[in-house]
Amino acid sequence: MDYVKAFIVGGLICVIGQILLDNTKLTPAHILVSFLTAGVVLGGLGLYTPIVEFGGAGATVPISGFGYALSQGAIEGAGTKGLLGAFTGGIEAAGGGIAAVILFGYVVALVFNPKTKD
User: Fold this and answer.
1) pTM for this structure?
2) Mean pLDDT over residues 22-33, rounded?
3) Which DSSP string do the residues of 55-69 spell out, in sequence order?
Protein backbone atom coordinates (compact mmCIF):
# COMPACT_ATOMS: atom_id res chain seq x y z
CA MET A 1 0.00 0.00 0.00
CA ASP A 2 2.97 2.33 0.61
CA TYR A 3 3.90 2.10 -3.07
CA VAL A 4 0.39 3.11 -4.11
CA LYS A 5 0.41 6.11 -1.76
CA ALA A 6 3.82 7.18 -3.05
CA PHE A 7 2.63 6.80 -6.65
CA ILE A 8 -0.48 8.89 -5.98
CA VAL A 9 1.34 11.72 -4.19
CA GLY A 10 4.26 11.82 -6.63
CA GLY A 11 1.85 11.60 -9.54
CA LEU A 12 -0.23 14.50 -8.24
CA ILE A 13 2.89 16.64 -7.91
CA CYS A 14 3.79 15.78 -11.51
CA VAL A 15 0.24 16.50 -12.68
CA ILE A 16 0.40 19.95 -11.09
CA GLY A 17 3.69 20.58 -12.89
CA GLN A 18 2.29 19.41 -16.22
CA ILE A 19 -0.82 21.58 -15.84
CA LEU A 20 1.42 24.57 -15.14
CA LEU A 21 3.52 23.78 -18.23
CA ASP A 22 0.48 23.38 -20.47
CA ASN A 23 -1.64 26.29 -19.27
CA THR A 24 0.83 29.03 -18.35
CA LYS A 25 3.81 30.71 -19.91
CA LEU A 26 6.06 29.50 -17.09
CA THR A 27 9.27 27.81 -18.16
CA PRO A 28 10.41 24.54 -16.60
CA ALA A 29 12.99 26.51 -14.61
CA HIS A 30 10.27 28.74 -13.15
CA ILE A 31 8.20 25.71 -12.18
CA LEU A 32 11.24 24.02 -10.63
CA VAL A 33 11.97 27.05 -8.47
CA SER A 34 8.27 27.40 -7.61
CA PHE A 35 8.09 23.79 -6.43
CA LEU A 36 11.28 24.17 -4.39
CA THR A 37 9.97 27.35 -2.78
CA ALA A 38 6.58 25.75 -2.13
CA GLY A 39 8.33 22.85 -0.39
CA VAL A 40 10.27 25.26 1.83
CA VAL A 41 7.21 27.37 2.69
CA LEU A 42 4.91 24.40 3.28
CA GLY A 43 7.62 22.67 5.32
CA GLY A 44 8.19 25.77 7.41
CA LEU A 45 4.48 26.07 8.10
CA GLY A 46 4.22 22.38 8.97
CA LEU A 47 1.82 21.66 6.10
CA TYR A 48 4.16 19.42 4.09
CA THR A 49 4.82 17.00 6.97
CA PRO A 50 1.40 15.27 6.70
CA ILE A 51 1.97 14.87 2.96
CA VAL A 52 5.36 13.24 3.63
CA GLU A 53 3.87 10.97 6.28
CA PHE A 54 1.15 9.85 3.87
CA GLY A 55 3.08 9.71 0.59
CA GLY A 56 6.58 8.81 1.73
CA ALA A 57 8.98 8.83 -1.22
CA GLY A 58 6.26 10.24 -3.46
CA ALA A 59 6.54 13.47 -1.48
CA THR A 60 10.26 13.48 -0.61
CA VAL A 61 11.81 12.57 -3.97
CA PRO A 62 10.45 15.48 -6.09
CA ILE A 63 12.10 18.90 -5.82
CA SER A 64 9.44 20.03 -3.36
CA GLY A 65 10.74 17.33 -1.01
CA PHE A 66 14.21 18.86 -1.27
CA GLY A 67 12.74 22.20 -0.24
CA TYR A 68 11.00 20.46 2.65
CA ALA A 69 14.32 18.93 3.76
CA LEU A 70 15.99 22.34 3.62
CA SER A 71 13.27 23.93 5.75
CA GLN A 72 13.32 21.15 8.33
CA GLY A 73 17.09 21.37 8.59
CA ALA A 74 16.94 25.14 9.01
CA ILE A 75 14.29 24.84 11.73
CA GLU A 76 16.28 22.16 13.56
CA GLY A 77 19.52 24.13 13.17
CA ALA A 78 17.91 27.29 14.50
CA GLY A 79 16.65 25.37 17.52
CA THR A 80 20.07 23.96 18.37
CA LYS A 81 22.58 26.57 17.13
CA GLY A 82 20.56 29.75 16.99
CA LEU A 83 20.61 32.16 14.07
CA LEU A 84 23.73 30.66 12.47
CA GLY A 85 22.07 27.24 12.59
CA ALA A 86 19.14 28.59 10.62
CA PHE A 87 21.52 29.27 7.72
CA THR A 88 23.63 26.10 7.98
CA GLY A 89 20.98 23.59 9.07
CA GLY A 90 19.37 23.25 5.65
CA ILE A 91 22.65 22.41 3.96
CA GLU A 92 23.55 19.93 6.71
CA ALA A 93 20.15 18.22 6.37
CA ALA A 94 20.32 18.00 2.57
CA GLY A 95 24.07 17.43 2.28
CA GLY A 96 23.80 13.71 1.55
CA GLY A 97 21.40 14.30 -1.33
CA ILE A 98 23.56 17.08 -2.75
CA ALA A 99 26.68 14.90 -2.57
CA ALA A 100 24.86 12.01 -4.27
CA VAL A 101 23.69 14.24 -7.12
CA ILE A 102 27.21 15.52 -7.73
CA LEU A 103 28.75 12.03 -7.57
CA PHE A 104 26.19 10.32 -9.81
CA GLY A 105 26.18 13.21 -12.26
CA TYR A 106 29.95 12.93 -12.58
CA VAL A 107 29.83 9.15 -13.05
CA VAL A 108 27.14 9.42 -15.73
CA ALA A 109 29.14 12.12 -17.52
CA LEU A 110 32.17 9.81 -17.56
CA VAL A 111 30.23 6.82 -18.83
CA PHE A 112 28.05 8.42 -21.51
CA ASN A 113 30.23 11.17 -23.12
CA PRO A 114 27.76 14.09 -23.01
CA LYS A 115 27.41 16.38 -26.03
CA THR A 116 25.86 19.79 -26.50
CA LYS A 117 22.74 20.28 -28.62
CA ASP A 118 23.29 21.81 -32.05
Assistant:
1) 0.79
2) 94
3) HTHHHHSSHHHHHHH
